Amino acid sequence: MHQVKTTCPYCGVGCGVNATVAENGTLSAVEGDREHPANFGRLCVKGSALHETLGEQGRLIKPRVDGEEVSWEQALSVTAERLNTLRAEHGNQSVAAYLSGQLLTEDYYVANKLFKGFLGTPHLDTNSRLCMASAVAGYKRAFGADAVPCNYEDLEEAELVVLVGSNLAWNHPVLYQRIKVAKERNPLMRVVVIDPRVTDSCEIADLYLGIKPGSDAVLFNGLLAWMAAKNKLDTVYLERHTQGVDDALSAARQSAGSIAEVAAACEVDAERLETLYYWFASQLHVVTLYSQGVNQSSSGTDKCNAIINCHLAGGKIGLPGAGPFSITGQPNAMGGREVGGLANQLAAHMDYDTPGARDLVSRFWATDNLVPRLPNGPGYKAVELFDAIARGEIKALWVMATNPAISLPDAAHVRAALEKCPLVIVSECAANTDLLPYADIVLPASGWSEKDGTVTNSERCISRQRGMLPPPGEARHDWQIICDVAKQMGFAEAFDYTHPSEIFDEHARLSGFENATTTQRLFDISGLAGLGRDGYDALTPIQWPVNAQAPNGTARLFVDGQFATPDGRARLLPITPRGPEQRLSQAYPLRLNTGRIRDQWHTMTRTARSPRLMNHRAEPFIDVHPDDAAEAGIKDQSLAVLSAATGQYRARARVSKAQRRGEVFVPIHWTDCFSQNARSSALIQRIMDPVSGQPEAKHGAVALAPL
Ligand code: SF4
Fold it and tell me: 4Fe-4S Mo/W bis-MGD-type domain: from which residue to which, for each copy (predicted)?
């Protein structure tokens, strides 16, 4: 029996896990790693059930081509040959990849290098687009870089924590626990929850604002205008470290009006609203923590910037216990961003329009003499990518560790696109998913507890995930599969890695290569280059940047008021609030909210294996306000159907006053593999934020009826 330190594969908290491997080679127990700075020994119910979700049953164990089991040799050569043929016939940009925040950074790195660097296509995006793309875009517009300024300790050191669009108690439970304990220790600490639903996170709230969905930007514009009116702006900070306050204030005043007007627009109590404004303005140590409720919107980026504006205007950033803190959904959403896993990114936090970046990356990857060279500009973002497949423009798609047939909006459209796509390659752990019937080539991949690599959590902390069990059957690691295909395609030299430590080393070297761009300098982990296999194996959690100036990592960003913009100043942006694009109508009069439940993860391929996790909510459901239920003729626990322009969802109704009148909530987890007609994505239209490309998953328009 021995213990292995690794990291939980679920949410963006990124908790450290001590896993016990028994004499018989199985993983017999898990407990929280007391030395890991994300959780200090805590685990939530999902993390503590990790060892109950393993085993060969239900795993993909053999490669398949056109429905037939084949050897790896055949699978790799057919994959390479078909990709090469389609590229030759239709051009480099006819091939695409769709990745996942479940992949490890090393997997992401080689996939990005292959597609953008060597196949010459920019069309590589990730399911992180569905989770935090608006937060990324908001940070970039304000700070010049996708850089989370805070860390988890800030949540404990704050005098005020404002949760916006985040049910932390269910979706990031260990952080919720940390805030709860900090609040018990510090009676002066306050927590505010801004959310259309009364959630379990309200248990620690001193103030709750049951906001009208989509009105967040009005609320934060109102806060900015109120701070100015009450002389609560930090004029010294604004003068020294920012640009754009006048325009931001003018837009805020235009949209906000009086407290009563803002309260009416947000449908919240005016007195409570003013209390929030007073608390925010009178404390320096304020963290605003926001998540999918803000991001998954057609104006998500603007909402993020409306929040950031208030922090910059009050100088509440770069200090202990202060800052606008986006909390990511997936375990490695940030690691994917680091290597360039979003279609608008190139590599190492550099975009296509980052001055000098394209040449720098091309020199580093030695693609200067390669035809084609790196693409010139961004590729299709997730929803656009599947539209391009539907148009016949993209001919080959490689999906890794995710299930767009379930998770993307308007799933019927996605499925029709996949049906039409001449080549669909799927790398996957689970043997039964809604995506696999569309795959021409199926490649069995290793999973958590089997693979080695790194992940980066929401506070920029890089941690090791460690392999401790052999992959089942013939499953291989994603980085190996990608590199083997690359070699077959003729790029043997550039993909000749023998261990993930070599990929991590290259990734770390690229982050500091020539030290040429400001965004690159901010994300510089060159201090982690040259670790070798032993150093990589022994790597302990560390927050980027990690370089000669910060060899032990960096707890907090922007402490000196210097940002990653060309002039070093942060930007306040003028925000004009916009409501949801999915309009309510007579036919579809209810606002649909979607989200996770406490004990499940994504499409349940892992968590559904644990009976105790399934006990929490054993089946899909529709949460509905008593008045809406009565109007539709629906009783508690009776079967009901939600209809939208794009499809239907059938489940049992749970009548609850935690829902606002006129709004319903459904979980995102159930797939056709578990329950026919209970896919939340069937109800969401293909509408995106114009800046971030993030779909408007929190704002469907539906009708409710008895089944
Ligand atoms: Fe895993 Fe997140 Fe739970 Fe931590 S809080 S144990 S990372 S699911």
Answer: 1-58
In angstroms and rounded to an integer, the radius of gyration of the C-alpha atoms of the chain is 24
Domain 2-53 of CATH type 3.40.50.720: no
- Per-residue confidence (pLDDT) for residue 522, from 0 to 100: 83
pLDDT tens figures, 382-406 = 999 999 999 999 999 999 999 999 9
Residues of the chain under the 50 pLDDT cut: none
pLDDT tens for 575-606 read: 999 999 999 999 999 999 999 999 999 988 89
Closest Cα to atom 2 of ligand 1: 11
Considering the segment(s) 133-327 as one domain, its CATH architecture is 3-Layer(aba) Sandwich (3.40)
Helix, strand, coil tally for the chain in percent (to 5): 35, 20, 45
> What's this model's pTM, rounded to 2 decimal places?
0.97
133 lines ligand 1 (CB under 6 A): no
Q: Is the CB of 467 under 6 A from ligand 1?
A: no
ipTM confidence: 1.00
Distance in angstroms between the alpha carbons of the first and the last residue of the chain: 53
**Which class is domain 590-706?**
mainly beta
Length of the chain: 707
Instruction: Pull the structure tokens for residue 339.
Output: 């290597």
Task: Note the pLDDT of residue 517.
Answer: 63
CB count, 10 Å around CB of 373? 15
Determine whether the shortest distance from the Cβ of 323 to ligand 1 is under 6 A: no
161: left (phi over 0), alpha (psi -120 to 50) or beta: beta
Q: Is the beta carbon of 613 within 6 A of some atom in ligand 1?
A: no
The fold adopted by the segment(s) 64-130+332-451+476-501 is Rossmann fold (3.40.50)
What is the whole-number distance in angstroms between the Cα of residue 203 and the centre of ligand 1? 19
Number of H helices, E strands in the chain: 25, 28
